[in-house]
Write a structure and sequence with these properties.
The protein is an alpha/beta fold and 184 residues long. The chain contains seven helices and seven strands. The chain has a seven-stranded mixed β-sheet.
Length: 184
């Protein structure tokens, strides 16, 4: 079964890294088919960016995400820019400290979206001491909520992807993310 995933935030949050880790985990360690694409505005750092991942148990014949079943939003601007094509009954995971929930309540109700919250940025700062790992905290929440990739595969892909010398910090950030999920 094919699952379309979109992760969006502002440039500099590590959104693209998050998508790369998910696709590596799925394809290299969970033995699924996966493809990852990315886009970001010309302003790069600070502007809206997104990465999209398709995971399937069959070969993927079209790599573009048209209607995400899972949407992870790490900034309000990116959520508003990329939410229009979200599926009915989709899963939406937000960082509630960076997203204005009141502005999306209508679309959540209209499309019967299941909303989860992960205070990834706050927890990265509080528990790790580095906001820069908020993307990996959010990755932990993504794994906990969706089960799209296994924890073991995610950890291996993190170790393959993060800069040398930051492995322990990133694995700790991932663990934090698995424990902070709230469902609306």
């Amino acid at each position: 079964m094919r699952t379309d995933i979109r992760i969006a935030g502002f440039g500099g949050q590590g959104v693209l890294m998050c998508g790369i880790v998910i696709s590596k985990a799925a394809s290299l360690y969970d033995e699924k088919y996966a493809v990852q694409t990315q886009s970001y505005g010309p302003e790069a750092r600070g502007g809206a960016s997104r990465t999209e991942v398709v995971i399937s148990d069959e070969e993927i014949d079209y790599p573009k995400v048209e209607h995400p079943k899972i949407f992870v939003a790490m900034s309000h601007e990116a959520l508003m820019k990329y939410i229009d094509d979200i599926q009915e009954n989709a899963t939406l995971i937000i960082d509630p400290d960076l997203v204005h929930e009141e502005e999306i309540s209508e679309i959540i109700n209209e499309r019967n979206i299941v909303l989860y919250k992960s205070r990834a940025t706050f927890e990265a700062d509080k528990k790790i001491g580095r906001k820069i790992v908020a993307n990996i905290v959010m990755l932990g929440s993504f794994v906990e909520i969706t089960g799209m990739i296994s924890e073991e595969a995610a950890k291996k892909a993190i170790l393959d992807s993060v800069p040398k010398g930051t492995e322990e910090m990133n694995l700790k950030a991932f663990e934090v993310g698995t424990k902070i999920v709230n469902k609306e």
